[in-house]
Structure formats: C-alpha cells, structure tokens
C-alpha cells in the first residue's frame, strides 16, 4: 500500500507533516507557492509539483495546510484549485485552522463533486508537527474519519471526530479561547501578586497545585515570571485564532463576553508590538495596563 | 508536648480543623457563637468555652476560622476580642479568607501587642478540612511560619509562605480569580460547541488533553456537560471571594479587566438564583446570556 | 440640469432616497433584485431597469444602497456589476453601511477605471430617508465630495467629508459603537436603580440634565422605562454594525475592550430573540443577566 | 427666619456651599479638621467651631460634606459625632458622595434618635458649588425633602427626591457610571478613527449631531482631541465613585458587566499615573492599550 497523496501548503507546519507522511509510506506530491518549500519535500523523499493540478493528479488523498480562510477558499474552490480537477471519491483533508463557515462551504462544494471532506485543524505547533504528535480535531462523517485514520496516525498522536463538517474548526476555536483566556487570567494573578508585594513564584506554585492548576501554569509559569516571551506560539497567530472564535460565535449566534474581552487583550498585545512574541506575553499587556511596564522591560534585559 | 490552643469559629471548616488538631495532640479549647458547634468540639476530645476570652486563656496558639472580614475584625480587634486578653508571644493564625487589608490591620495590631500573626487562608473545601489535606497560603514572617509548621501539618497537606502579612489572602484571591475565570471560559467553550452542533464531550476531551487542559476540565467537564451543579463550592462563596479579589486589586492599585468581568458573571449567577449551586453553574449564566437556558433546565430534570 | 443617475438597491432606505432624488430633479433609473421595489420607483417618477447594466447606462452618477459588504462586492465588483460597464469619469456613491475594508477595495477598483468613488453611509433611519434629513458620513477626495454635494443635499440634512476612502464607514462604525454602548450603560443604570428601590424616572431625569446627558437619554428614557422596545433601529441591524466596528478595529490594529463587550451584549440580545426589537432592548439583556426578566415581561403586557 | 445650621466639612465643596447658605440668610456654624477652612467660613460671615458638638449646638439643620464613607461614619455615628448630641427633630442632610449602604445606616441611626435624615450627593463640581448651581440627588422621606427645600435652593439649581434613604447615592452612582462609560466609549471611537486615518474632529462633529450625541461630546470633544486633560473632575475621584457604584450593585444584587469594565479602565488610568488628570484622560488609557501612547504624549507638549 502506497497511497498517492497530494499535499498543498508546505510551510512551517505542512513541510514536516508531508515529510512524516513520506516516512509512513505515503507517496506524496506537494505544491507550495514558495519554490524552496517544494524542493524541501523532494529532498525528504516526496515529489515536487509546479501547480495544484499537478500535485493532485491521480491522488487518492488530497491535503491542504494553509494560513487562513482566503487561502483555503482560493486553493480549493478557486480557479485552478483542487476542486477543479479532483476525482470523485477522493479523500480531502484540510488541516488549516480557519473559520468554520469556510470549512462548511468546502464540505458542501466537495459533496457536490463526490469528494469526501474533513476539516482537521491541529494543535501542537511546529514541534508537534516535526515529532508527529499533533492533536487533530476533526469535523465530518464517521466513515470518512475512519478512512483518514492512516493519515492521522502518520502525523499526530491523537485525533477525534467532534461532529459534522466545521466541527474540527469549532473545537480548535474553543481550545484557543480557553488557552488565551487562561494566559490572561494567570497574567492578572501575577500582576496582582507582584503589585501587592507577594512572592509570585510561591503563589503560582500554590495555584498550580490546586483547582486553579492548568497545563499553562505547569509549563509556563517560570518563563512568565522571568518575562521570557520567546515563542512558542506567537501572539499574531493567536490573534488570528481569536478572530476565528468570534466568527464562529457569530455564526452560532452565541454571545461570549469573556472571549470577546480576551480577543481585545490579544489585539492589544499585537498593537503594542508584541505580535512576534509568545502568547504568554499577555502578561506584558496586563502590566502595561496597570502602569507596571518597567518590570517586563527590566526583566527583558 | 501538648500545645494549648484556642480555636475561634467552629463552623463547617473550623470544626473538622479543630478536631484534626485534637487528633494531632493539640489541647484545643474552642468557641463559636453557635453552641452546638462548641459541643461538637467537646465530643471530639476538645474543650468548649463560653467566650473568646475563655477559649484563649493560657493559649500558646490562637486560631480563627471565620466567614468574612467584619467577623474577624470583631472577634480579633473588637471589644471582648482576642487581642484584648491575648498574651505577648502568642502565635496567632487566621485561617479565614478575608481581604488583605484586614489581615494587614490585624498583623499590625498584633505586632503592637507582641503577638506573632499569620494570615493563612486555605483551599480544599469541607472535604479537605475533614481529611486534613488543605492547601494553606500564608502571609507573615519566616520564623513565625516555621513556628506554625506543626499546626499546618495537623490540618493540611501543603503550606507555603508567600510573603509578608496579607500575602496569604492575596494568593487566595489570585487562586479564586483564576478558578472563577477558568469556569467561565470553559462555559463559553461549551456554549459555543453546543450551539454549533459539535459533540461537546469529544471537544472537551481534546481540550483537556492539550494546552487548554486544567484541573477544572479534568474534574468537572463531565458534571458540567450533565448540568450537575451540586456543590462543591457554592457560587455565594465564590462571589464573596471575587469581592476580596477586587478589593485586593484596588488596594494594590492594579486594573484587572478580566477579573472584573468574571466577578460580574458570578454576581449574575447569584442574581439568577444560583447562589447555592456549584461555581461550575457559571455555565448556566453563559447559556442564559445566549438564550439557551432550556438546555440547562432540561438537563436539570 | 437633469443629472442622469443610476440607483442600485431600492429597499427600505434606498426607495425613499431615490424618490427624493427624483423630487430634486435628478433623472433616476433604478434597479433592485425585488421587482416591486423597481415598480415603486417608476411610480415615483423614476425609471425601472431590469439589470445593473441597464440602470447605469449613460449615467453621470451611480449610487448603491445595499444591505452588507457581500452585496456591495457583488453589485459593484462582480460579474454584471457596476464596474463592468461604468464610464470613466462617473461619480459613484455607495451609501451602504459596510466594513471600511470593502469600501477601500471599491475605491481602488474605481480609481483603476477612472471612476470617482465616495463611501457615504448614513444615519437617521427610514424616517430620515423619507424626510431627506439623513446625516451622511463621507470618505473620499475633497473634489469628489464637492461634486456630490447636490446628491447629498437631495437626501440629507448634513454631510461631512471625514477623510480618505473608507473614512465614512469608520465614522459610522464609531457612531454605532457609541450609540450601542450608551444604551448598554443607561440599561445598567436603570437596572441598578430599580433593584435598589429607587424611582428610576426621577433618577434618569437627573442624569439627563447633567454631564451624563445624551440624545439617547433625551429621546428614549421614557420608552425604556416603559419597556416599549418597538423599533426604531433593530438589534439585528445594530448587531451587523458592531461586526463592522470590530472589523474596522481589527483592520486599524486597535484594541477596543468596551466596544467588544458591547458587541457581545448586542449579540446576546439577538440570541435571546430580541433581534427585531429596538436597540434599546439592551435593557432586557441587562435585566435578564441579573435575574430580573420578570420586569420587562410584565411591562410588556 | 434665620435658620441655625451646623456645617461639618468645609473643604473644596463644603466651603462655597456653606458660604452660599450664609448669603441666603442661614446662620451657619461650621467645623472642619483643617483650621484654615474654619477661618474661611468666619470670613464669609459664618461662625467657626472647634468641634462637631460646638458646631451643631442648637442647630435646626445639620449638614455634612465629607470625602468618603469612613469619614461620614466617624463624624456622624462615631464618638464625638453628630448623633451623640443632636436634638430630636433636627433636619440632617449629608451632601457627601458615599456608598448607599452607609447612607442607609445613617438614616436608620437617625430615625432611632428622631432625626430627619436625607442623603443628598451633588454633581456640578467646585464651580457648581461656588455658583450655587449644583444638581442634588436626594434619598429620604417626601416631607423631609420638602423641609430641606430652602437649603437646596441656597446651594443648587435642581434637587429631586429619588426614593427612600440611600436613593440619592444610588442615582449619583448611576450618573457616574454613565459618565465614566461615555468617556470610555468616546475614547475608543477616537482611537479607532485616528488609527484608521480618519479626521477625528470631523467624525466627532457627526457623532455629536446625531443619536450618539451627549453632553460629554458637546463639552469635551475639543479638549480630548487636543489631549488637554486638565481637571475638571479628577480620575482619582471618579475611581472612588466607581467603587461606590460597584458597592451599590453588590448591595442591590445586580450584575453590571460594562460598569465593571469601565471601573477597571478608570483604575488603569490611576495606575498609569493619571489620577490627578481630568476623567477624559480615559483617552490616554485607550491609546496606551493600542500602543499609541506617543500621540497623547506628543500632544501634551
């Protein structure tokens, strides 16, 4: 078995994912707007293509991993896009993190062409992509999910079907709102403790050990206290993801006041020039708001 | 060694704490406004007293565990209170969760009388108190903290000195703002997923396994999805604690926008008649806001 | 002088605006997807057209008044749209309220064709459109604004050039965030006063007479106290406008926490089934949040 | 008729109010902790006193105008306070802005002594006090309000009875939350317009003329655009008043999310060192949040 696979989007995430598919025995032909990315796939044992059409010719599986919904719309639905030349029966997996609305449009357009579609955004970052330990949140039909299992096994550690088309995106959005909000809460806790003259390290140890405990407190409290905001996952990306969460809420007709405020704080981080810092830099926003920016600046030296 | 100990406030938390001190070999004399509570201590091997003065007579250690700052102010600083008759050199531990401002006043008043004071609010709830596994957040001087170690060992699992007087309260406040905020975020995630037609149980499993993971997702996601809001820790108490967090922020001159909004949502829970429900009932507030109250109501049957 | 004018979009707002242009001596040919709307223009002294191309043939001025940015993008930039057949030198005015991003795209596409473009969203509602007293917020070049003056005089009371392309939309967005936020603040003031047993009518009179005074307090306090939420301007439309305000903030890279929260509250109004009520129905959202929904319901009878 | 009147608290507000009572024919004896303030009253035709007891001896009317609730509690209810020596039947008016809870306590304590009590916080500032054009929000009984009319006429332009004891404070709190919130909304509108390259002065003119119009836009838009934050009413005082609004909400058991966020933004202004600036300096907070602090700083030169 050597499944012919077309892979569109060979960037920071797509490149190691495609390489892991090659390692797992898939026959991968890839395309990217950026030629060196295509060359990299060839070096990893795949085949480079000069267009989407060439990449997906004869493919049983087509994969996209693209930055945002306009890229997906163009590469899949647009002129020269996947759905122009894709064969009926093809399994199409979009690993991009985009708004659910576009995933649903793609699924409907796929259905009209007999293509089996999954939205499958991931978490775990570049490191998770390289190590093939991504978490994969999937929307689509159960039998399509079952068919995609070998792909998910090749690139990830865990994959779960969360509902119909778009559900993967909604769960990813839910994940990002909880992550962003938790950083913002921990940031406010730190600002409060430090301003009150408390030993914040001792305080966070107590929080981490009780009901306030979280993966973020476990992994990030030391770096936050040290004002080490090297990414990690950049504010700019989290800003994009909060936009998706608010789009999803608007689509689902629900009001999310806390999420809305967290999105504003992440937008503030970006506006304050922290876009390329780790999302834990929400701490700097919380400090600046309380006129305590000196601390982050001082620690940064 | 059988340390003579006066214990003021034998309610839901104080009663098992006093009993655990008796078990650990302390000679405990207790007082409570409510006579049956005093009788319970006697039944557990302690001694009942008819007044604060009687309870603390000859005590080397004096402990208070009271509902709110006015009770502490009255019982410690007021007429007939602890500091009227306490001996210099006494170790005074206030386990109550109150605003840092009052803890600092108490510490200063104690210092003026030669009393060694710690503020030591706890988390872990009634069950933690009974099982002697409380987490204890302490403010005060290092040598006083060291002297109090046998008391903390008798009632808790972990105790940490977090800074000068009031620091225990600030850390407890920080803990409660993170806990309240995390519930509110998880609630918004659930509302979003359910409204979008996603399998929220599958979605929360994904969140729990990644960077969004938390003690709350681990322990409470099943009960939240089932709309089982039996306490646990009541909204009314969390409302009191958010008031302390906002007081602490005001005292420390920091602005906590997210904490402020979370406090408003917990106030809303209370205003909606959920004061005696578990704090995870923030989910019902999030649902009501989006006109989805039917779901909580239906599940509640 | 009888300026040949093409008018696309003859709905609730566009229909009376087109009629007012006819009254002012413009020679108006109009098109709408909805045939009865076209017939209405003919009855008012204009000419009906069966397509955009027909409506704008030979026109010196082309006007659009459409519901949202996708409609404008399609009708102006899309296949069969205005810019396919428009003559260079034409004055093009878009009265639609849409996101600034689309207005800027339209202005750029117009410039490439030698078309002079203004974005010119209005306030004043259906009544303002009928009475030709709209307020018109304009983005574009000063000489184009000057050229459009006769059009603005025919449909509005006041028009102001607020900056380059897109500026009209930004000012409209700013207007709507202040209006929505003011309703929400007045709603919280009313809820507080009523819950505290205060005579809210007397209280609002005091507010209206001092620094808290506003057009909204002046015009709407009586109807709000009476829970009379007949539109007026519907929550659904304000919800759309808050989406534009948040899009504009994202585009301008600014963080607007209060606006974000107001948008969530308006989304809540919609989710609670108040979408077709006046935007002053934010009072019902504020009441529901505090478990006081009975009052609005009772008054509604 | 020359009503004997005791006046406690002769600060920035109390001093001109007492002088206006003298002008109106009242026989005023005043006391203040600060001796020069007492001398000033004597110079204005009143009589100075060395204690509260001396100031109110034989008085038919007793007035307090003090900074915050602890001062009122001490001066009225405390040792040596008004209620120790006040005669039954005296009319007692507290013009201080304090939390409703304390006003209610004072009213109850007054009732127990046969004293007729009103809470009567004012707006209009120092200038309004000097010019005797204050707005007076009153809580208490109708017949007491009627009896106080000559006092109100001597110091204010308008006085309204808003309900039972504490109602004046609640209305003042409602006023302050609307004022603070309106500044914050206008600030976000300005930040959005300026960041988007819009002529904010032209934009605010449009807002001021429509449904977004307010006293604040009318009086303050020019100074805000010029970043002229000379008080006026200081952030520190508005911060105190937002604390009262949140206390009042807590007491009335209502959730005010927008008010909570506005209070956090005003706290931020203070934390950023703007406590002695006008409350319109909320604009600087909004700018800093979006990393645009240069503008306020530049304009400030």
From TrEMBL, chains A, B, C, D:
<dbReference type="InterPro" id="IPR013328">
    <property type="entry name" value="6PGD_dom2"/>
</dbReference>
<protein>
    <submittedName>
        <fullName>2-hydroxy-3-oxopropionate reductase</fullName>
    </submittedName>
</protein>
<dbReference type="InterPro" id="IPR002204">
    <property type="entry name" value="3-OH-isobutyrate_DH-rel_CS"/>
</dbReference>
<feature type="active site">
    <location>
        <position position="172"/>
    </location>
</feature>
<dbReference type="InterPro" id="IPR036291">
    <property type="entry name" value="NAD(P)-bd_dom_sf"/>
</dbReference>
<dbReference type="InterPro" id="IPR008927">
    <property type="entry name" value="6-PGluconate_DH-like_C_sf"/>
</dbReference>
<dbReference type="Pfam" id="PF03446">
    <property type="entry name" value="NAD_binding_2"/>
</dbReference>
<feature type="domain" description="6-phosphogluconate dehydrogenase NADP-binding">
    <location>
        <begin position="5"/>
        <end position="160"/>
    </location>
</feature>
<dbReference type="InterPro" id="IPR015815">
    <property type="entry name" value="HIBADH-related"/>
</dbReference>
<feature type="domain" description="3-hydroxyisobutyrate dehydrogenase-like NAD-binding">
    <location>
        <begin position="166"/>
        <end position="285"/>
    </location>
</feature>
<dbReference type="InterPro" id="IPR006115">
    <property type="entry name" value="6PGDH_NADP-bd"/>
</dbReference>
<dbReference type="InterPro" id="IPR029154">
    <property type="entry name" value="HIBADH-like_NADP-bd"/>
</dbReference>
<dbReference type="GO" id="GO:0016054">
    <property type="term" value="P:organic acid catabolic process"/>
</dbReference>
<keyword id="KW-0520">NAD</keyword>
<dbReference type="InterPro" id="IPR006398">
    <property type="entry name" value="Tartro_sem_red"/>
</dbReference>
<comment type="similarity">
    <text>Belongs to the HIBADH-related family.</text>
</comment>
<dbReference type="GO" id="GO:0051287">
    <property type="term" value="F:NAD binding"/>
</dbReference>
<keyword id="KW-0560">Oxidoreductase</keyword>
<dbReference type="GO" id="GO:0050661">
    <property type="term" value="F:NADP binding"/>
</dbReference>
<dbReference type="Pfam" id="PF14833">
    <property type="entry name" value="NAD_binding_11"/>
</dbReference>
<dbReference type="GO" id="GO:0008679">
    <property type="term" value="F:2-hydroxy-3-oxopropionate reductase activity"/>
</dbReference>
<dbReference type="GO" id="GO:0046487">
    <property type="term" value="P:glyoxylate metabolic process"/>
</dbReference>
């Amino acid at each position: 078995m050597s499944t012919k696979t077309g892979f569109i989007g060979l960037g920071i995430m797509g490149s190691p994912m495609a390489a892991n598919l090659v390692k797992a025995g898939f026959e991968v032909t890839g395309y990217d707007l950026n030629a060196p990315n295509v060359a990299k796939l060839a070096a990893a044992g795949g085949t480079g293509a000069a267009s989407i059409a060439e990449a997906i010719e004869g493919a049983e599986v087509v994969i996209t991993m693209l930055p945002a919904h306009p890229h997906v719309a163009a590469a899949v639905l647009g002129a020269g896009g996947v759905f122009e030349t894709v064969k009926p029966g093809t399994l199409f997996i979009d690993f991009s993190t985009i708004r659910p609305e576009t995933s649903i449009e793609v699924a409907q357009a796929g259905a009209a062409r007999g293509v089996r579609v999954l939205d499958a955004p991931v978490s775990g970052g570049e490191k998770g992509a390289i190590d093939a330990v991504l978490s994969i949140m999937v929307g689509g039909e159960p039998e399509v999910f079952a068919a995609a299992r070998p792909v998910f096994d090749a690139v990830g550690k865990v994959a779960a079907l969360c509902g119909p088309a778009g559900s993967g995106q909604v769960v990813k959005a839910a994940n990002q709102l909880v992550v962003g909000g938790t950083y913002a809460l921990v940031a406010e806790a730190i600002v409060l403790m430090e301003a009150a003259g408390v030993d914040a390290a001792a305080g966070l140890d107590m929080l981490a050990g009780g009901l306030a405990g979280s993966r973020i407190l476990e992994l990030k409290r030391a770096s936050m206290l040290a004002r080490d905001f090297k990414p990690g996952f950049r504010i700019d990306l989290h800003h994009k993801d909060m936009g998706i969460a608010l789009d999803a809420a608007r689509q689902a007709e629900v009001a999310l006041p806390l999420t809305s405020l967290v999105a504003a704080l992440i937008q503030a981080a970006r506006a304050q020039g922290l876009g390329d810092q780790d999302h834990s830099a929400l701490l700097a926003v919380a400090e600046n708001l309380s006129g305590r920016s000196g601390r982050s600046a001082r620690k940064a030296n």
